[in-house]
Write a structure and sequence with these properties.
The complex is a heterodimer of chains A (about 450) and B (about 110). Chain A contains 13 helices and 18 strands. Chain A is an alpha+beta fold. Chain A has a 10-stranded mixed β-sheet, with helices on both faces. In chain A, strands 5, 14, 15, 16 and 17 form a 5-stranded antiparallel β-sheet that branches. A 3-stranded antiparallel β-sheet of chain A has the order 9-10-13, with helices on one face. The longest helix of chain A is centred in the C-terminal third of the chain and has 18 residues, at about 330-350. The model of chain A has no long low-confidence stretch (mean pLDDT about 95). Chain B has 4 helices and 4 strands. Classes of the chains: A alpha+beta (about 450), B alpha+beta (about 110). Chains A and B meet through helix 9, strand 14, strand 15, helix 11 and strand 16 of A and strand 1, strand 2 and strand 4 of B.
C-alpha cells in the first residue's frame, strides 16, 4: 500500500534549523513542510514590502533553504512552505538564486499567489468580526490576506514543482496539498479532506507533537529536548496517519503528545473550519503502535464554507512599557510602592491612556490577583511591569520613562530597568466570497548556466 | 487533589478566544473529569481571566475535554497588553484547580 511520508521542519518563523536537516537526511521523507506564518506576521511582512519591494518574505528563508535544498534535491524530497509571507514571488526568486549558487540544475520553484486581497477589500464595503465597517481603518489598513486552500499548491505539485512557496495559505493546506496530489483525492471527498486536514493540523506546529511544549518534570518527563526531533506523518491513501520521528532524535511521540496537539487551537472539535473542508475531529481515535509510533484516524469532514477568512492587518495603537526589578527583604512591598508611584505620576503629568496594566512579575502578571492569592509564599525577587495603550508614540514613551525614572525617584534598590515604546499592528478578520479570490501557481526552473 | 494529578492541559489562541484542553492521564479518570469539571467551575476558577462565555466540548473517545473561553485574551495576541499575550500559561492556571471539594460533594449525592 502506498504511503507518503511528510516531515514538518518548522512550526513557526523562528523555529530551530537543524531538525529539518535531520528530517531531510535521515527521515526517509517524500515532502518537507515549513509552517512559518502567524496571524500578524503577514501584516508586518506587508509593511516591510512597502519599504522594499523585494522584501516581505520570511527572514530565515535563505538560511533554511541553504540548509536543506541540496539534500532535498538529491533525494527527490519536495518542499512546501508559507515562507513567502507577503511576497511569494520574491521568495521564489531568492530560492532559485540559492539553488543556482549550490549548482542545483533544473530545480522547479513555484510561487503561489492570490492570497493578497487588499485591493478587493479596500474597494468593497466589508465589516470585520466585530461587525464594524473596515473603512474605519482608512490609511491605517496595512494588509488583507485570504486564507487560501490546498488546490493551487496541489496544482503546483502536479506541474512538477520541487519547491512550492506560498503566503497566507491555511496551515493544514501545506500538508493537505501533497496528499491531494499523491493520492488524487477529489476536492469534494470531504471525509478524506477532513482526515488530511487532521494530519496537517497535527504536523503544523512541528515539535509540539514530538514532546516539545509538553514536559512537566515529575508528571510528564521528556528526554532530549535540546535535540528535539521534528515529526513525520506516514499517511495512507485513506488519510490515516502514523505520527513518528527520526530514530535516536530527542523527544517522544506518544498518545498524550498527539492528544495535546489534536486539540491545540481547536474550538468545536466537530467543526474545524478551513478553506478546503469543515473537518470533524470528534471521533478521532489514537493508538500507540510502538516506540514513537502513534496511529491517528477517524476524522471526517463536511462541505467547505462558502466564504474565505481574510486576515486584515492595521495599525491599531501605540504601547509604552517599562519594567524594574526589586529583590531581597521587602521586595514585594517596594514593588507595590513603585507601581503606586508610577500610577500617580501618570495621573499628575496627564498621560492619556485608553488601557493600562500594572503587573508584578513573580506574583500576578500571568493570572491576575485571584489565583495569585492562593500562593502564600513571598518571592525573593519580583519585577514590576507597566504597559499602557496610547494614541501616539510620544505618549507611549512617557509611560516607559516614568518607570525608568524610578531609578532615582522611586523606592530603594530598583534595578534592571527596561523600557520600550512601539506601534501595534493588530489583526481583524473579514469573510470574502470565494469567487473574489484567485490563487495561482507560477513556476520557474533554475538556470542550466550555473552547472 | 489538584486537577494536575489527573490530567494534563494545553492552551491555544485564536484572535481573542482561548481554548484549554484537559486530557486525562488515565482514561479511567475521564468520567470523573466529565462530571466534576464543568464549564461553570472552570470559569469560576479562572476568575477575571475568563470574563466571557466558557463553553465545554467533550471528547470521550480520547478522554479529553476542550474549554473555549470567549474574550479571554485582552483583545488577542496582536493587541493585548499582557506579558503572556497568547494566554499560553492558562493551561497551567487550570491545572491548579482543586477538585477535592467537587469530588467529595458530587459523589456523595449519588
Amino acid at each position: 500500500m502506498k504511503r507518503i511520508r511528510i516531515g514538518c521542519g518548522a512550526g513557526y518563523s523562528g523555529d530551530r534549523l537543524e531538525p529539518a536537516v535531520e528530517l531531510a537526511e535521515q527521515g526517509e521523507i517524500d515532502y518537507l513542510v515549513f509552517e512559518c506564518l502567524a496571524e500578524r506576521t503577514i501584516a508586518l511582512a506587508q509593511r516591510a514590502r512597502m519599504i522594499d519591494p523585494e522584501a516581505g518574505y520570511d527572514p530565515l528563508l535563505a538560511e533554511r533553504m541553504r540548509a536543506v535544498l541540496a539534500t532535498c534535491s538529491r533525494k527527490g524530497i519536495r518542499i512546501v512552505t508559507n515562507m513567502g509571507a507577503a511576497n511569494p514571488l520574491a521568495a521564489a526568486a531568492r530560492v532559485r538564486e540559492i539553488a543556482d549558487s549550490l549548482g542545483l540544475v533544473g530545480l522547479k520553484v513555484a510561487a503561489v499567489t492570490g492570497d493578497d486581497v487588499l485591493a478587493t477589500v479596500r474597494a468593497g464595503d466589508y465589516r470585520d468580526d466585530t461587525g464594524q465597517p473596515i473603512a474605519r481603518f482608512g490609511e491605517r489598513l496595512l494588509s488583507a490576506n485570504a486564507y487560501i486552500g490546498a488546490q493551487a499548491l496541489a496544482d503546483a505539485l502536479a506541474q512538477g514543482a520541487d519547491v512550492v512557496i506560498t503566503g497566507r495559505a491555511a496551515d493544514p493546506a501545506l500538508v493537505l496539498a501533497p496528499l491531494i496530489h499523491e493520492f488524487g483525492w477529489a476536492m469534494d471527498d470531504w471525509h478524506r479532506l477532513g482526515q488530511g486536514t487532521l494530519v496537517g493540523h497535527l504536523l503544523e506546529c512541528a515539535g509540539q507533537i514530538t514532546g516539545g511544549y509538553f514536559a512537566d518534570p515529575g508528571y510528564k518527563d521528556v528526554a532530549g529536548l535540546a535535540r528535539l526531533g521534528f515529526p513525520i506523518g506516514e499517511v495512507a491513501e485513506d488519510g490515516t496517519v502514523i505520527i513518528t520521528k527520526v530514530r535516536g532524535s530527542g523527544g517522544q511521540v506518544t498518545a498524550a503528545t498527539c492528544k495535546e496537539q489534536l486539540l491545540y487551537e481547536i474550538h468545536d472539535p466537530r467543526a474545524y473550519l478551513t478553506p478546503d473542508v469543515v473537518a470533524d475531529f470528534s471521533g478521532v481515535r489514537i493508538t500507540e503502535l510502538g516506540l514513537d509510533r502513534v496511529l491517528v484516524e477517524g476524522a471526517t469532514g463536511h462541505p467547505r464554507p462558502p466564504t474565505l477568512k481574510v486576515s486584515i492587518g492595521y495599525v491599531d495603537s501605540y504601547v509604552g512599557e517599562g519594567q524594574m526589578s526589586y529583590a531581597g527583604p521587602g521586595a514585594l512591598a517596594r514593588a507595590r510602592l513603585a507601581l503606586a508611584i508610577v500610577e500617580e505620576r501618570l495621573r499628575i503629568t496627564g498621560v492619556q491612556t485608553s488601557e493600562i496594566r500594572y503587573d508584578i512579575i513573580g506574583v500576578n502578571a500571568m493570572h491576575r490577583d485571584a489565583l495569585a492569592a492562593a500562593s502564600e509564599c513571598e518571592p525573593y525577587e519580583v519585577r514590576i511591569r507597566v504597559a499602557g495603550r496610547t494614541d501616539s508614540l510620544g505618549e507611549a514613551q512617557r509611560i516607559a520613562n516614568e518607570v525608568e525614572s524610578l531609578y532615582t525617584c522611586g523606592p530603594a534598590g530598583g534595578g534592571g530597568a527596561f523600557k520600550s515604546a512601539r506601534d501595534i499592528v493588530a489583526v481583524a478578520s473579514v469573510l470574502l466570497p470565494r469567487a473574489l479570490v484567485h490563487p495561482a501557481a507560477h513556476i520557474e526552473e533554475t538556470g542550466h548556466a550555473a552547472a | 487533589m489538584l486537577l494536575r494529578e489527573l490530567a494534563h492541559a494545553r492552551a491555544g489562541d485564536k484572535g481573542n478566544i482561548s481554548n484549554i484542553s484537559v486530557i486525562a492521564y488515565d482514561p479511567k479518570d475521564y468520567p470523573l473529569l466529565e462530571r466534576c469539571l464543568t464549564a461553570e467551575r472552570v470559569k469560576a476558577h479562572l476568575g477575571e481571566i475568563a470574563g466571557g462565555e466558557v463553553r465545554r466540548y467533550a471528547l470521550p473517545g480520547i478522554g479529553a475535554l476542550n474549554f473555549v473561553l470567549q474574550n479571554a485574551l485582552s483583545g488577542g495576541v496582536t493587541r493585548s497588553l499582557a506579558l503572556d499575550a497568547h494566554g499560553k500559561t492558562l493551561g497551567s492556571a487550570l491545572l491548579g484547580l482543586d477538585l477535592t471539594h467537587y469530588i467529595d460533594n458530587d459523589f456523595k449525592e449519588t
